[in-house]
Amino acid sequence: MHTLPQQLANGLFLGSMYGLIAIGYTMVYGIVQLINFAHGEIFMTGGFGALTVYFYVLPDGTSMWIALPAMLIGGALVAVLIAVGAERFAYRPLRGAPRLAPLITAIGLSLALQQVVFNYFPDAKNDRTFPQLTSQTYDLGSVHVQSGQLFVIIAAPICMAALGFFVRLSRTGRAMQATAQDPDTAQLMGIDTNRIIVIAFAIGGIFAAVAAVAYGLRYGQIKYDMGFQMGLKAFTAAVLGGIGNIYGAMLGGVVLGLAETLATAYIDGIPGMQQLGGGSWAPVWAFVLLIVVLLVRPQGLLGERVADRA
Amino acid sequence: MRHRSLLILTTVLTTGALTLTACGSRDNKGGDKAGGTTTVVIGVDAPLTGQNSATGLGIQYGVQIAVDDANKKNLVPGVKFKVSALDDKANPASGQQNATKFVADKNVLGVVGPLNSGVATQMQQVFDTAGLVEISPSNTAPELTQGKNWQTAKSRDYKTYFRTATTDALQGGFAADYAYNTLKKKKVFLVDDKQTYGAGLAKLFKANFVKAGGKIAQEDHVSTGDTDFSSLVTKIKNSGADLVYYGGQYDESEKLTKQLKDAGVKIPLFGGDGMFSDTYIQTAGKTSEGDLATSVGVPVTTLPAAKQFIADYKAKKYPGDYGTYGGYSYDAATAIIKAIGNVVKDGKVPSDARTKIVDEVQKTKFDGIAGPVAFDQYGDTTNKQLTVYQVVSGKWKAVKSGTYNAG
Question: Which residue ranges run through the membrane (chain A) (predicted)?
Fold first, then answer.
């Protein structure tokens, strides 16, 4: 069992990435009760935004330590622009429409964004190589980490803490809470709900961009359809943690990441389970976990009981 | 008002779409006559976008060069060849649709492809029913030619299917022999992607490696499209294996090797022709150093006959890897063109041209750019050459070429 610390760390890294993306689903759902299925693609465009900054804006051979902040900003800018644009032109006109209409719009938008990147971004038809911080790896006790993993393990808690303070302490954050509770009353009290909704989309975009940079640093490449699978996993994480709750999204992500990793590592070691273990069965076990959690706690791990929603 | 303008827009779009498709449809008489020459189409089916597309494009352009050469040299008088390439996205269902399209177009007299064995299994029946010849430059699963029970009772199910690549029965054995006897590896961690090609290759490697005296530390499977292998990597690290054998394509193995080396596991990854691609080295970077792959045939660059082909490929600035199957695609297309030359005289396509072309391809015998081209009674190539490549200073370097005798 001495691989356990390493496997837990693997799960934590993967789960933090899911959690960062899941924030976008949960923020938007909490405020407008919309499942933004195009969020996976916002994550993807964030990655391509960062790539653009590195290859087409900065001079060749810029050190990654200087380039990384610029890439984060560039990626976030692109992701926020797309997220806010999607809200303004695709979702806002449908705000009064039945719930199904914006959902279908989101799926359409997701396909459209994928195809636009696929067709118009230079060489996006193949995997694009993502610049690496260092090829160095670090040993922390019995745990071995790579620089991309280090990035996500530092970035995720910082982002999470910043978001927590923002929502709890700032004026805008309190307005967000009010809008989430009751948009109509909030508007009557003088809160500009449209602005709040835009901010929710924008924050989702920033977090998605951070996750996309982490993804690129970890796996060494990004591609036009990477948002689909990651988006689906992150959405699962958001539901697992209790959709609408930002801490739930992070927790859900980490639990999902751990579940996948541990399932890959240990299920096939259990006598009689050899056929049901290994890497290809990991998603199955992750979804089994989701079903079990939802049976016991339909509102998710940290979700509130909101019978009138969803 | 809004509804009316929508209606008009829809009408205009529909009319436009219908007109365009009508323009695209062909007369089904067999052969467009244009200025005294007949146009004959050679179909290509391969993944041209997304997964596996680097090697897929190599197939498309390999065929394109063969067709250009045939037109330039006027190899078949009265016939002008054209390439029609369809994208199967490495997806069996798309491959089957493409096969149906090719069969329906009477100008198509032969098809080169597909890249993936799993896709081929869904295309063979369609081509066989229509009697249209299909030559794959890259399929390696033994059952495609020799039937499901190829190990005990060989039988050929589809007489229109041929291939210029040799089979995994030889490739898996060749790799196992090299791993055990040359690399002196004794304990292997086996990973595959559960696809027809990957799982088949891994199984054959395992059988031969164990027979040679080696041990299998553990086995695991991944899904195509997976990106995170950290958990698997930890398992490999803990298993004490001195080699990882991967049955599958470069899309997953390039990430696996990167994460493996990043985690401090300094053992090489060994795979089949599915990961023998420059993209593999590009993505995995320095972490791919020392990794190995077997591939069919001998390196194209060492063949004098292929010099012109490589020069043409580079001159046209085609993307994709010609290295893996480009030469075989050229030879596959040439085999079809030569067969057509024996059937189509003076630009006249006989009504049973497709059937006759299948018979002609069976009799093929010529020196291709990647070695002699001829087919045995199952449709397999008689050229059983294989090569082991290793990544040395960021390039695939041939380390051993030869043939492997199964048995």
Answer: 12-35, 42-58, 64-86, 98-121, 148-167, 196-217, 237-259, 280-296
Quick: pLDDT tens for B268-297: 999 999 999 888 998 888 899 999 999 988
CA distance A298 to chain B (A): 29
Nearest CA-CA distance, residue A229 and chain B, Å: 9
The candidate with the shortest Cα–Cα distance to B161, out of B364, B384, B370, B362, is B362
Q: Output the six-digit token pair for A299.
A: 């509102």
Cβ separation B220–A146 shorter than 8 A:
no
| Tokens representing residue B306 in the block | 């292929």
Record the tokens describing residue B45, joined without a space: 């089916």
Q: Which of A21, A93, A221, A204 is nearest to B281 (CA)?
A: A221
Q: Does B89 touch chain A (CB under 8 A)?
A: no
Q: Omega of the bond prior to A122 within 30 degrees of 0, cis?
A: no
CB contact under 8 A, A13 and B230: yes
Chain B positions touching A132 (Cβ under 8 A) are 285
For A283, the token pair is: 């998603």
With beta carbons under 8 A apart, name residues in chain A contacting B264. 137, 139, 144
Nearest to B227 among A11, A219, A278 (CB): A219
Cβ-contact B112, B59 below 8 angstroms:
yes
Gap between the Cα atoms of B48 and A272, Å rounded: 42
Prediction ipTM score: 0.83
Residue among B388, B386, B358, B357 at smallest CA distance from B370: B386
A-chain residues near B235 (CB < 8 A): 3, 264-265
Q: Are B337 and B42 in contact (CB under 8 A)?
A: yes
Between B149 and A25, the more confident residue is A25
Of B221, B227, B233, nearest to A278 by CB-CB distance is B221
Instruction: Answer yes or no: same fold for B35-166+303-375 and B169-296+387-403.
Output: yes
H or E segment at B276? none
Residue A2 above 80 pLDDT?
no
B222 close to A (CB below 8 A): yes
pTM value > 0.90 = no
Q: What is the pLDDT of residues B354-379, one digit of tens each?
A: 999 999 999 999 999 988 899 999 99
The answer, for B226 touching chain A at a CB cutoff of 8 Å, is yes
Domain B35-166+303-375 in this protein, CATH class: alpha beta
Domain ranges of chain B: 35-166+303-375, 169-296+387-403
Tokens of residue B135, six digits: 């030559």
